[in-house]
Specification:
Layout (H helix, E strand, L loop, with lengths): L3 H8 L3 H4 L5 H4 L21 H12 L5 H4 L5 H6 L4 E4 L3 E2 L9 E2 L9 H12 L3 E6 L10 H14 L4 E5 L9 H7 L4 E3 L9 H4 L5 H14 L4 E8 L5 H13 L4 E6 L16 H13 L4 E4 L9 H16 L1
Parallel strand pairs: 1-4, 2-3, 4-5, 5-6, 6-7, 7-8, 8-9
Helix pairs in contact: 7-8, 8-9
Length: 325
């Protein structure tokens, strides 16, 4: 008999999200076997009272979370503490990355009430730090940048003490989009590289590695005091020296914070896991990244961009203050 916990541990996908149908674009890919996870990366299914209370707030506000849509393995831990990362601009992405569990297709219209609904949910949860991300919206003239800015402004009005972290798409070929988001002054600007450049064609075909590097560099040019952040997954087939070169590229762009986590294959239609990176290898990556000059590094099998984001933001500020003395 297969239990809920067995299913969650095998797939890394939250039960509510696992039931959602995905776009046929990903179904066209040939089946890839899913490897059984090593003991260090298994997590329990989300069943706590706090998890359900968070789910109720999300449903009441008609909000979407990346926790569910991306099948984050940390959803049980975070939602139990009423921590959630919100995904704006709908639940359907215009791209079909081989690693991602988010639905692909033609998105619906932008919800004009979403900024206020999201701000209300943040107030109900009592969040001191909130992460806001989105699907790719290549169908919009600005890629959704103005909506990001509207969400930031709504949060400033409703919960002015809450610090705001955005995790944005690359706004590829969207003139002025990045500037619109930076002008709204989030506390942290995050844009994930996801993987090394040699894997972009198969893993992230709609994106361009050096465009993403340039985007992060441009944030610092526009606002040198804004914290910048980026993250990658390992276990996709990258070589160690490629990860080290990626670190150098990010430091050239003056990125402050690097996250490194284990890639987990959402389904048989997604890119296969090539390797389960050991906890010791993650520690080695962390030590090297600090030596290269990052203010903060989070590297572990279960590290995700928004996991412990509030605590990490406090550590970022402390690290900057310590470095400036």
């Amino acid at each position: 008999m297969v239990t809920l916990i067995d299913t969650f541990e095998a797939s890394g996908t939250a039960p509510d999200a696992a039931a959602r149908p995905r776009h046929p674009e990903k179904a066209k890919r040939p089946d890839q076997p899913i490897q059984r996870k090593p003991a260090w990366i298994r997590v329990k299914a989300p069943v706590s009272r706090g998890y359900r209370e968070t789910a109720d707030i999300v449903r009441a506000g008609k909000l979407v979370t990346v926790c569910e849509e991306a099948g984050c393995p940390n959803i049980g831990e975070c939602w139990e503490k009423k921590h959630a990362s919100f995904m704006i601009l709908g639940d359907t992405c215009t791209r079909a990355c081989a690693f991602c569990n988010v639905r692909t297709g033609m998105p619906g219209p932008v919800d004009a009430h979403e900024p206020e609904n999201l701000a209300s949910a943040v107030a109900q949860m009592g969040l001191t730090h909130v992460v806001v991300t989105s699907v790719d919206r290549d169908d919009l003239e600005d890629g959704g940048a103005a909506h990001f800015a509207a969400v930031i402004r709504a949060l400033r009005r409703t919960t002015p003490e809450t610090t705001v972290e955005v995790l944005t798409p690359d706004f590829l070929r969207k003139k002025g989009a990045l500037e619109t988001v930076v002008e709204a002054e989030p506390d942290v600007f995050n844009h994930n590289l996801e993987t090394v450049p040699s894997l972009y064609r198969t893993v992230r075909p709609g994106a361009r590695y050096f465009h993403s590097i340039r985007l992060l560099q441009r944030v610092k040019e526009l606002n040198p005091q804004m914290f910048t952040k980026s993250g990658i997954m390992v276990g996709l087939g990258e070589e160690r020296n490629e990860v080290l070169q990626l670190m150098d590229d990010l430091r050239t762009a003056e990125v402050d914070f690097l996250t490194i986590g284990q890639y987990l294959q959402p389904s048989r239609k997604h890119h296969p896991v090539k390797d389960f990176v050991t906890p010791q290898a993650f520690k080695n990556y962390e030590a090297i990244a600090y030596a290269k000059g990052f203010l903060l590094v989070s590297a572990s099998p279960l590290t995700r961009s928004s996991h412990h984001a509030g605590e990490d933001f406090a550590r970022l500020r402390e690290a900057r203050a310590a470095r400036s003395t």
